[in-house]
Amino acid sequence: MPETSRRGLLFGTAAVSAGVLLTACTSNEPKEAAATDSGPVASDDKPGKAVTIGFAGPQADHGWLNAINDQAKSRAKKYSDVTLDITEGSNDIAAQIGQVETLINKKVDVLVILPADGKALTQVGLKAMRAGIPVINLDRIFSNPQAFRAYIGGDNYGMGVSAGNYIGQKLKGKKDAKVIELAGIDGLELTQQRSKGFDDALKNYPNIKKVARQAADFTVESGQAKMAQLLQAQSSFDALWNHDDDQGVGALRAIQQAGRDDFLMVGGAGAKAAMDAIKADNSVLKATVLYPPTMAASAIDLARTLGQSKGISGLAELEIPAQVTLYSAVVDKDNVDQYLPTGFR
Predict the structure, then answer these.
(1) 269 close to 244: Cβ distance less than 8 angstroms
(2) Nearest to 330 by CA among 292, 298, 293
(3) Which of 36, 90, 166, 236 is most buried when burial is the number of CB atoms within 10 A of its CB?
(4) Is the pTM of this model over 0.90?
Protein backbone atom coordinates (compact mmCIF):
# COMPACT_ATOMS: atom_id res chain seq x y z
CA MET A 1 0.00 0.00 0.00
CA PRO A 2 1.39 3.41 -0.87
CA GLU A 3 2.88 5.53 1.89
CA THR A 4 0.04 8.06 1.71
CA SER A 5 -2.36 5.35 2.85
CA ARG A 6 -0.34 3.56 5.50
CA ARG A 7 0.36 6.17 8.09
CA GLY A 8 -3.00 5.94 9.80
CA LEU A 9 -6.57 6.12 8.66
CA LEU A 10 -6.70 9.67 7.32
CA PHE A 11 -8.01 8.28 4.06
CA GLY A 12 -8.43 11.29 1.82
CA THR A 13 -8.47 11.58 -1.95
CA ALA A 14 -4.73 10.84 -2.15
CA ALA A 15 -5.27 7.42 -0.59
CA VAL A 16 -8.21 6.59 -2.83
CA SER A 17 -6.34 7.52 -5.99
CA ALA A 18 -3.36 5.43 -4.84
CA GLY A 19 -5.49 2.31 -4.90
CA VAL A 20 -7.28 1.93 -1.57
CA LEU A 21 -10.76 0.48 -2.08
CA LEU A 22 -13.20 1.93 0.42
CA THR A 23 -16.70 0.47 0.65
CA ALA A 24 -19.27 2.40 2.67
CA CYS A 25 -21.35 0.62 5.27
CA THR A 26 -24.83 -0.22 3.99
CA SER A 27 -26.35 -1.49 7.23
CA ASN A 28 -29.27 0.13 9.00
CA GLU A 29 -27.32 0.60 12.23
CA PRO A 30 -27.43 4.02 13.93
CA LYS A 31 -25.08 6.71 12.76
CA GLU A 32 -21.82 6.72 14.68
CA ALA A 33 -21.26 10.46 14.67
CA ALA A 34 -23.46 13.51 14.60
CA ALA A 35 -23.04 15.98 11.77
CA THR A 36 -22.15 19.56 12.59
CA ASP A 37 -22.28 22.72 10.54
CA SER A 38 -18.79 21.92 9.29
CA GLY A 39 -19.50 18.25 8.56
CA PRO A 40 -19.15 14.99 10.51
CA VAL A 41 -16.82 14.64 13.47
CA ALA A 42 -13.63 13.09 12.12
CA SER A 43 -10.97 11.05 13.83
CA ASP A 44 -7.70 12.77 14.70
CA ASP A 45 -4.69 12.25 16.96
CA LYS A 46 -6.07 14.37 19.82
CA PRO A 47 -7.03 12.37 22.93
CA GLY A 48 -10.71 11.51 23.09
CA LYS A 49 -12.98 8.92 24.64
CA ALA A 50 -11.05 6.03 26.19
CA VAL A 51 -11.26 2.88 24.07
CA THR A 52 -10.22 -0.66 25.01
CA ILE A 53 -9.33 -2.68 21.91
CA GLY A 54 -9.08 -6.46 22.04
CA PHE A 55 -6.65 -7.92 19.50
CA ALA A 56 -6.59 -11.61 18.59
CA GLY A 57 -4.39 -13.09 15.89
CA PRO A 58 -2.67 -16.34 14.99
CA GLN A 59 0.69 -17.42 16.37
CA ALA A 60 3.49 -15.15 15.13
CA ASP A 61 5.49 -17.97 13.53
CA HIS A 62 6.31 -16.02 10.36
CA GLY A 63 8.05 -12.69 9.80
CA TRP A 64 4.91 -11.10 8.41
CA LEU A 65 2.70 -12.24 11.30
CA ASN A 66 5.25 -11.05 13.84
CA ALA A 67 5.19 -7.67 12.09
CA ILE A 68 1.38 -7.66 12.36
CA ASN A 69 1.61 -7.87 16.14
CA ASP A 70 4.38 -5.26 16.29
CA GLN A 71 2.38 -2.85 14.14
CA ALA A 72 -0.72 -3.23 16.33
CA LYS A 73 1.24 -2.70 19.56
CA SER A 74 3.22 0.31 18.33
CA ARG A 75 0.13 1.96 16.88
CA ALA A 76 -1.85 1.54 20.09
CA LYS A 77 0.99 3.14 22.09
CA LYS A 78 0.64 6.25 19.95
CA TYR A 79 -2.73 7.01 21.53
CA SER A 80 -3.12 7.90 25.20
CA ASP A 81 -6.83 7.06 24.94
CA VAL A 82 -6.30 3.46 23.70
CA THR A 83 -5.78 0.38 25.86
CA LEU A 84 -4.74 -2.69 23.86
CA ASP A 85 -5.60 -6.13 25.20
CA ILE A 86 -3.66 -8.48 22.93
CA THR A 87 -3.82 -12.28 23.14
CA GLU A 88 -0.85 -14.60 22.91
CA GLY A 89 -1.99 -15.84 19.50
CA SER A 90 -2.54 -19.39 18.35
CA ASN A 91 -2.81 -21.42 15.15
CA ASP A 92 -5.12 -23.83 16.97
CA ILE A 93 -8.66 -22.89 15.96
CA ALA A 94 -10.25 -23.86 19.28
CA ALA A 95 -7.59 -21.97 21.23
CA GLN A 96 -8.06 -18.80 19.21
CA ILE A 97 -11.83 -19.01 19.56
CA GLY A 98 -11.32 -19.29 23.32
CA GLN A 99 -9.06 -16.22 23.29
CA VAL A 100 -11.69 -14.18 21.43
CA GLU A 101 -14.41 -15.36 23.82
CA THR A 102 -12.25 -14.22 26.74
CA LEU A 103 -12.04 -10.76 25.18
CA ILE A 104 -15.82 -10.77 24.67
CA ASN A 105 -16.33 -11.66 28.34
CA LYS A 106 -14.03 -8.78 29.30
CA LYS A 107 -16.42 -6.50 27.38
CA VAL A 108 -13.75 -4.73 25.37
CA ASP A 109 -15.08 -1.81 23.32
CA VAL A 110 -13.91 -3.07 19.92
CA LEU A 111 -12.36 -6.32 18.69
CA VAL A 112 -9.67 -6.66 16.02
CA ILE A 113 -9.42 -10.26 14.82
CA LEU A 114 -6.96 -11.75 12.36
CA PRO A 115 -8.30 -15.31 12.24
CA ALA A 116 -6.04 -18.30 11.74
CA ASP A 117 -8.94 -19.50 9.56
CA GLY A 118 -11.60 -17.01 8.50
CA LYS A 119 -14.37 -19.56 8.00
CA ALA A 120 -13.68 -21.32 11.30
CA LEU A 121 -13.68 -18.08 13.32
CA THR A 122 -16.85 -16.68 11.74
CA GLN A 123 -19.16 -17.88 14.51
CA VAL A 124 -17.16 -16.19 17.26
CA GLY A 125 -17.13 -13.01 15.18
CA LEU A 126 -20.92 -13.23 15.01
CA LYS A 127 -21.01 -13.82 18.77
CA ALA A 128 -19.07 -10.62 19.39
CA MET A 129 -21.24 -8.56 17.07
CA ARG A 130 -24.41 -9.90 18.71
CA ALA A 131 -22.94 -8.97 22.09
CA GLY A 132 -22.68 -5.38 20.88
CA ILE A 133 -18.90 -5.45 20.37
CA PRO A 134 -18.02 -4.27 16.85
CA VAL A 135 -15.40 -6.37 15.07
CA ILE A 136 -12.63 -5.23 12.75
CA ASN A 137 -11.84 -8.29 10.63
CA LEU A 138 -8.17 -8.15 9.65
CA ASP A 139 -6.83 -9.77 6.47
CA ARG A 140 -8.36 -13.29 6.48
CA ILE A 141 -12.02 -12.58 5.92
CA PHE A 142 -14.92 -14.22 7.73
CA SER A 143 -17.37 -16.22 5.62
CA ASN A 144 -20.34 -14.15 6.80
CA PRO A 145 -20.21 -10.33 6.48
CA GLN A 146 -22.47 -10.05 9.54
CA ALA A 147 -19.50 -11.26 11.62
CA PHE A 148 -17.66 -7.95 11.24
CA ARG A 149 -18.37 -4.23 11.19
CA ALA A 150 -15.39 -3.45 8.98
CA TYR A 151 -12.82 -5.43 7.05
CA ILE A 152 -9.28 -4.35 6.23
CA GLY A 153 -6.80 -6.50 4.34
CA GLY A 154 -4.43 -6.95 1.46
CA ASP A 155 -5.15 -7.81 -2.14
CA ASN A 156 -3.73 -11.21 -3.02
CA TYR A 157 -5.09 -11.14 -6.56
CA GLY A 158 -3.69 -7.62 -6.91
CA MET A 159 -0.27 -8.86 -5.80
CA GLY A 160 -0.23 -11.27 -8.72
CA VAL A 161 -1.41 -8.59 -11.12
CA SER A 162 1.26 -6.15 -9.96
CA ALA A 163 4.00 -8.79 -10.22
CA GLY A 164 2.85 -9.88 -13.67
CA ASN A 165 2.63 -6.35 -15.02
CA TYR A 166 6.03 -5.38 -13.60
CA ILE A 167 7.67 -8.41 -15.19
CA GLY A 168 5.69 -7.85 -18.37
CA GLN A 169 6.98 -4.33 -18.71
CA LYS A 170 10.55 -5.43 -18.07
CA LEU A 171 10.33 -8.15 -20.75
CA LYS A 172 8.11 -6.22 -23.15
CA GLY A 173 10.65 -6.11 -25.95
CA LYS A 174 11.94 -9.67 -25.56
CA LYS A 175 10.75 -12.31 -28.02
CA ASP A 176 9.61 -15.66 -26.57
CA ALA A 177 10.29 -14.62 -22.98
CA LYS A 178 9.92 -17.30 -20.29
CA VAL A 179 8.90 -16.84 -16.68
CA ILE A 180 8.60 -19.21 -13.72
CA GLU A 181 6.68 -18.96 -10.44
CA LEU A 182 7.60 -19.97 -6.89
CA ALA A 183 4.22 -19.98 -5.19
CA GLY A 184 3.16 -20.34 -1.56
CA ILE A 185 1.09 -23.10 0.01
CA ASP A 186 -1.22 -24.35 -2.72
CA GLY A 187 -4.02 -25.31 -0.34
CA LEU A 188 -4.49 -21.68 0.71
CA GLU A 189 -6.92 -19.48 -1.18
CA LEU A 190 -4.46 -16.57 -0.97
CA THR A 191 -1.90 -18.57 -2.98
CA GLN A 192 -4.48 -19.43 -5.59
CA GLN A 193 -5.49 -15.77 -5.86
CA ARG A 194 -1.89 -14.64 -6.27
CA SER A 195 -1.29 -17.16 -9.03
CA LYS A 196 -4.51 -16.22 -10.81
CA GLY A 197 -3.65 -12.53 -10.71
CA PHE A 198 -0.18 -13.28 -12.08
CA ASP A 199 -1.55 -15.43 -14.90
CA ASP A 200 -4.21 -12.85 -15.79
CA ALA A 201 -1.62 -10.06 -15.95
CA LEU A 202 0.68 -12.12 -18.18
CA LYS A 203 -2.17 -12.39 -20.70
CA ASN A 204 -1.45 -8.74 -21.50
CA TYR A 205 1.97 -9.75 -22.85
CA PRO A 206 1.70 -12.30 -25.67
CA ASN A 207 5.49 -12.52 -25.92
CA ILE A 208 5.69 -14.08 -22.43
CA LYS A 209 5.01 -17.68 -21.45
CA LYS A 210 5.00 -19.18 -17.96
CA VAL A 211 6.98 -22.39 -18.30
CA ALA A 212 7.12 -23.71 -14.73
CA ARG A 213 5.59 -23.37 -11.27
CA GLN A 214 6.45 -24.84 -7.87
CA ALA A 215 4.60 -24.42 -4.58
CA ALA A 216 6.64 -23.86 -1.39
CA ASP A 217 5.57 -23.43 2.25
CA PHE A 218 6.39 -19.80 3.08
CA THR A 219 9.59 -20.93 4.82
CA VAL A 220 13.27 -20.36 4.05
CA GLU A 221 13.91 -24.11 3.82
CA SER A 222 11.05 -24.79 1.42
CA GLY A 223 12.03 -21.81 -0.72
CA GLN A 224 15.56 -23.12 -1.10
CA ALA A 225 14.49 -26.69 -1.88
CA LYS A 226 11.76 -25.79 -4.38
CA MET A 227 13.91 -23.16 -6.08
CA ALA A 228 16.70 -25.69 -6.51
CA GLN A 229 14.23 -27.98 -8.26
CA LEU A 230 13.08 -25.19 -10.57
CA LEU A 231 16.65 -24.30 -11.48
CA GLN A 232 17.48 -27.91 -12.30
CA ALA A 233 14.40 -28.25 -14.48
CA GLN A 234 14.73 -24.89 -16.25
CA SER A 235 18.13 -24.20 -17.77
CA SER A 236 17.02 -20.84 -19.14
CA PHE A 237 14.30 -18.33 -18.27
CA ASP A 238 13.94 -14.58 -18.00
CA ALA A 239 12.03 -13.84 -14.80
CA LEU A 240 10.87 -15.39 -11.55
CA TRP A 241 8.00 -14.35 -9.31
CA ASN A 242 8.30 -15.57 -5.74
CA HIS A 243 5.13 -15.13 -3.66
CA ASP A 244 6.81 -14.56 -0.30
CA ASP A 245 9.98 -12.78 0.82
CA ASP A 246 10.63 -15.20 3.70
CA GLN A 247 10.81 -18.19 1.38
CA GLY A 248 12.63 -15.87 -0.99
CA VAL A 249 15.63 -15.91 1.36
CA GLY A 250 15.96 -19.62 0.65
CA ALA A 251 15.28 -19.11 -3.04
CA LEU A 252 18.16 -16.62 -3.27
CA ARG A 253 20.46 -19.11 -1.56
CA ALA A 254 19.62 -21.75 -4.15
CA ILE A 255 20.13 -19.25 -6.96
CA GLN A 256 23.51 -18.19 -5.61
CA GLN A 257 24.60 -21.80 -5.08
CA ALA A 258 23.68 -22.56 -8.69
CA GLY A 259 25.65 -19.53 -9.89
CA ARG A 260 22.66 -18.19 -11.81
CA ASP A 261 22.25 -14.49 -12.59
CA ASP A 262 20.59 -14.65 -16.01
CA PHE A 263 17.08 -13.57 -14.95
CA LEU A 264 15.27 -11.05 -12.76
CA MET A 265 13.40 -11.94 -9.59
CA VAL A 266 10.34 -10.26 -8.07
CA GLY A 267 9.44 -11.04 -4.46
CA GLY A 268 6.30 -10.62 -2.41
CA ALA A 269 5.17 -9.11 0.93
CA GLY A 270 7.81 -6.42 1.58
CA ALA A 271 10.41 -7.81 3.99
CA LYS A 272 13.23 -5.49 4.99
CA ALA A 273 15.82 -8.05 3.84
CA ALA A 274 14.27 -8.02 0.38
CA MET A 275 14.24 -4.23 0.27
CA ASP A 276 17.87 -4.12 1.41
CA ALA A 277 18.81 -6.48 -1.43
CA ILE A 278 16.86 -4.39 -3.92
CA LYS A 279 18.63 -1.25 -2.73
CA ALA A 280 22.05 -2.95 -2.91
CA ASP A 281 21.23 -4.13 -6.45
CA ASN A 282 23.76 -6.96 -6.23
CA SER A 283 21.50 -9.96 -6.85
CA VAL A 284 18.75 -11.10 -9.21
CA LEU A 285 16.13 -9.68 -6.82
CA LYS A 286 14.98 -6.43 -8.40
CA ALA A 287 11.55 -5.80 -6.86
CA THR A 288 9.00 -6.94 -4.30
CA VAL A 289 5.22 -6.56 -4.31
CA LEU A 290 3.80 -5.29 -1.02
CA TYR A 291 1.36 -7.09 1.23
CA PRO A 292 1.90 -4.61 4.06
CA PRO A 293 1.62 -5.66 7.72
CA THR A 294 0.95 -1.98 8.42
CA MET A 295 -2.67 -3.01 7.90
CA ALA A 296 -2.63 -3.94 11.60
CA ALA A 297 -1.77 -0.36 12.56
CA SER A 298 -4.60 0.84 10.34
CA ALA A 299 -6.93 -1.69 12.00
CA ILE A 300 -6.10 -0.10 15.37
CA ASP A 301 -6.90 3.31 13.89
CA LEU A 302 -10.21 1.99 12.59
CA ALA A 303 -11.04 0.41 15.94
CA ARG A 304 -10.23 3.62 17.83
CA THR A 305 -12.30 5.69 15.41
CA LEU A 306 -15.20 3.27 15.71
CA GLY A 307 -14.98 3.20 19.49
CA GLN A 308 -15.10 6.99 19.61
CA SER A 309 -18.08 7.14 17.22
CA LYS A 310 -16.23 9.26 14.69
CA GLY A 311 -15.77 9.30 10.94
CA ILE A 312 -12.61 9.47 8.87
CA SER A 313 -11.00 12.74 7.87
CA GLY A 314 -11.23 13.28 4.13
CA LEU A 315 -14.47 11.32 3.70
CA ALA A 316 -17.94 12.82 3.81
CA GLU A 317 -19.57 9.81 5.48
CA LEU A 318 -20.42 9.83 9.18
CA GLU A 319 -19.19 6.23 9.57
CA ILE A 320 -15.98 4.36 8.91
CA PRO A 321 -16.02 2.28 5.69
CA ALA A 322 -17.17 -1.32 5.71
CA GLN A 323 -14.16 -2.46 3.68
CA VAL A 324 -10.62 -1.23 3.11
CA THR A 325 -8.54 -3.12 0.55
CA LEU A 326 -4.86 -2.22 0.41
CA TYR A 327 -3.01 -1.58 -2.84
CA SER A 328 -0.27 -3.99 -3.92
CA ALA A 329 2.50 -1.53 -4.73
CA VAL A 330 5.74 -2.63 -6.37
CA VAL A 331 8.98 -1.62 -4.65
CA ASP A 332 12.11 -1.45 -6.81
CA LYS A 333 15.33 0.56 -6.79
CA ASP A 334 13.47 3.71 -7.88
CA ASN A 335 11.26 3.92 -4.76
CA VAL A 336 12.85 1.58 -2.22
CA ASP A 337 14.02 4.42 0.04
CA GLN A 338 10.40 5.51 0.47
CA TYR A 339 9.25 2.07 1.57
CA LEU A 340 12.27 0.86 3.58
CA PRO A 341 10.86 2.13 6.90
CA THR A 342 7.86 -0.17 6.44
CA GLY A 343 9.91 -3.31 5.72
CA PHE A 344 9.40 -6.10 8.26
CA ARG A 345 12.03 -8.45 9.69
Answers:
(1) yes
(2) 292
(3) 166
(4) no
